[in-house]
Design brief:
With 96 residues, this protein is mainly α. It has a single domain, classed as Arc Repressor Mutant, subunit A. Helix 3 packs across helix 5 and helix 4 packs across helix 5. The two termini are 21 Å apart.
């Protein structure tokens, strides 16, 4: 019995692909629901700092050094926040 591993990158890629799917009129309501679920998961599962780092890194496409400078953190701290956020969101997959 193998263990399936998901990365945050693959989850975000899946969301992106689903958003392309949403370009069709009949799918937009499903995608809006999905986006609302992801937003709620980020809001209730992540710390404020994890949410900031994750948003800047994945959605704003900023580099870790840039995030660190903007937030006044060390680069390794930003990296740890992003990894912790990914782990927290991974835990949710078992409930979906």
């Amino acid at each position: 019995m193998g263990v399936k591993v998901y990365s945050l990158d693959s989850q975000l890629e899946e969301i992106y692909m689903q958003s392309l799917y949403a370009q069709r009129e009949d799918n937009r309501s499903d995608i809006k629901k999905m986006h609302a679920m992801v937003s709620k998961a980020m809001l209730y599962t992540l710390t404020e700092r994890q949410r900031q780092c994750l948003t800047m890194y994945y959605f704003e496409k900023r580099k870790i050094p840039e995030i660190a400078e903007k937030l006044g953190l060390h680069k390794s701290t930003v990296s740890r926040h992003i990894k912790a956020a990914g782990k927290n969101l991974q835990k949710l997959r078992s409930f979906v």
